[in-house]
Amino acid sequence: MEKLSIVKIGGNIIEDVSALQAFLNLFSKLEGKKILVHGGGKRATHIASKLGVESKMVNGRRITDAETLEVITMVYGGLVNKNIVAQLQALKIDAVGLTGADANSITSDKRPVKDVDFGFVGDVKSVAYHSVNKLIEAGFTPVFCAITHDGNGQLLNTNADTITSQIAVGMSNLYETSIYYCFELNGVLEDINDKNSVIKHIDAKRYEELLEQGIIADGMLPKLENCFDALHNGVASINMGNTSMLTRENNNFTTITL
Amino acid sequence: MEKLSIVKIGGNIIEDVSALQAFLNLFSKLEGKKILVHGGGKRATHIASKLGVESKMVNGRRITDAETLEVITMVYGGLVNKNIVAQLQALKIDAVGLTGADANSITSDKRPVKDVDFGFVGDVKSVAYHSVNKLIEAGFTPVFCAITHDGNGQLLNTNADTITSQIAVGMSNLYETSIYYCFELNGVLEDINDKNSVIKHIDAKRYEELLEQGIIADGMLPKLENCFDALHNGVASINMGNTSMLTRENNNFTTITL
């Protein structure tokens, strides 16, 4: 099976012009077929605030009302996505910027209202991996922002990590798929206070041990749960670390396999 | 040669939710391969004003400074484009929303500064019609907003009518191409005060006569000049009228050929 890399960057890189440029340089040199997924960062919050759209939180979780969805569509789907595409073109990567509505690539269900009405938030239902692959086969590099659609004309806000793992699961029908989650840390850390204590390899057995030892906790718990979900659904490997893990000169990051 | 239709809609349709829905219905039923190009309308001006970005005019012409370009990228490339794509998907049209940076489809030169510095405005240099055709051949319907790029990472604001005619000229290398310019009028009018005085057919000879008689003047002059430029560069026919010309039940619109 041919290899496919799916790289996800978050707000910390998108908000820093020089960090983004440095990352896109690395991404452009990454060999083989590839997909980029980007989050949005605080840009949307800033612009929402300027537009007088209030951030609504319930139990510490953000609510996507109609106005917030408009801002997200403008900022993630327009400003951030199209500038990344233009910069990749300058690096000779033939990028095409997408939401889940484009090419009908990612369909989601509006999250049902239970205790909380999250508003226009979508939980991924299906990835049209054959459609995404048509773009890849035509020589394009898809660049996804964290927006999906319900198939009935409604755009929906969706978590970028989830989009990444769901695309990876879908593409695993056609490729040996690896995810690269770029984040602030060098990897999953043995000691949260020592940034150099990177655990280089985690498999299912080691994961159980780390859970028992309480080393994986807090924000890292759901991330790793999602990783193992993706691995159980066909993804070959998942890497977590800072952007330099794309260079292969740096091997100080975490690789997760079954 | 296979036929290709390129349809352009302007602000009057985009700003009216029900007019846009009605148009997209007609567009979805248009047979054969097709491309949609949309302008932006006053939405960008409203949002710019809310964000405190002033519209700068010199000699009655709008200047696209860096902040204005950001708003245009958000509104045209994000909000308007992605909502059109989502609505087309609901109508079973497999749309992909694009700027000229996506698929490197439309490259432009930043307009040189002479008497006026127009800012981040691009004049179309080339259309990568083979790239656009890859999308069409894969079964997608391209939906372009009026943004291009310079190939060096810079997005540029470009007139939607010009983008339409330049795409049509490029695609004429591969298809028998027709343009449909949807606008407020029923077509080119013999008497500007009589909306039913549509001139149904204009060829090069009739165009000269209409010019001599002073019937084509003001805003219609540059539009028709652009039309004949496109026809001289390979476009088969150009139609101007309201959106109902897409139905073929209404034949009360203007068709322009050489």
UniProtKB/TrEMBL annotation, chains A, B:
<keyword id="KW-0055">Arginine biosynthesis</keyword>
<dbReference type="InterPro" id="IPR036393">
    <property type="entry name" value="AceGlu_kinase-like_sf"/>
</dbReference>
<feature type="domain" description="Aspartate/glutamate/uridylate kinase">
    <location>
        <begin position="4"/>
        <end position="237"/>
    </location>
</feature>
<feature type="binding site">
    <location>
        <begin position="40"/>
        <end position="41"/>
    </location>
    <ligand>
        <name>substrate</name>
    </ligand>
</feature>
<comment type="similarity">
    <text>Belongs to the acetylglutamate kinase family. ArgB subfamily.</text>
</comment>
<keyword id="KW-0963">Cytoplasm</keyword>
<keyword id="KW-0067">ATP-binding</keyword>
<feature type="binding site">
    <location>
        <position position="62"/>
    </location>
    <ligand>
        <name>substrate</name>
    </ligand>
</feature>
<dbReference type="InterPro" id="IPR001048">
    <property type="entry name" value="Asp/Glu/Uridylate_kinase"/>
</dbReference>
<keyword id="KW-0808">Transferase</keyword>
<dbReference type="InterPro" id="IPR037528">
    <property type="entry name" value="ArgB"/>
</dbReference>
<dbReference type="InterPro" id="IPR004662">
    <property type="entry name" value="AcgluKinase_fam"/>
</dbReference>
<dbReference type="GO" id="GO:0016301">
    <property type="term" value="F:kinase activity"/>
</dbReference>
<keyword id="KW-0547">Nucleotide-binding</keyword>
<keyword id="KW-0028">Amino-acid biosynthesis</keyword>
<feature type="binding site">
    <location>
        <position position="157"/>
    </location>
    <ligand>
        <name>substrate</name>
    </ligand>
</feature>
<feature type="site" description="Transition state stabilizer">
    <location>
        <position position="223"/>
    </location>
</feature>
<comment type="function">
    <text>Catalyzes the ATP-dependent phosphorylation of N-acetyl-L-glutamate.</text>
</comment>
<comment type="pathway">
    <text>Amino-acid biosynthesis; L-arginine biosynthesis; N(2)-acetyl-L-ornithine from L-glutamate: step 2/4.</text>
</comment>
<feature type="site" description="Transition state stabilizer">
    <location>
        <position position="8"/>
    </location>
</feature>
<dbReference type="Pfam" id="PF00696">
    <property type="entry name" value="AA_kinase"/>
</dbReference>
<protein>
    <recommendedName>
        <fullName>Acetylglutamate kinase</fullName>
        <ecNumber>2.7.2.8</ecNumber>
    </recommendedName>
</protein>
<keyword id="KW-0418">Kinase</keyword>
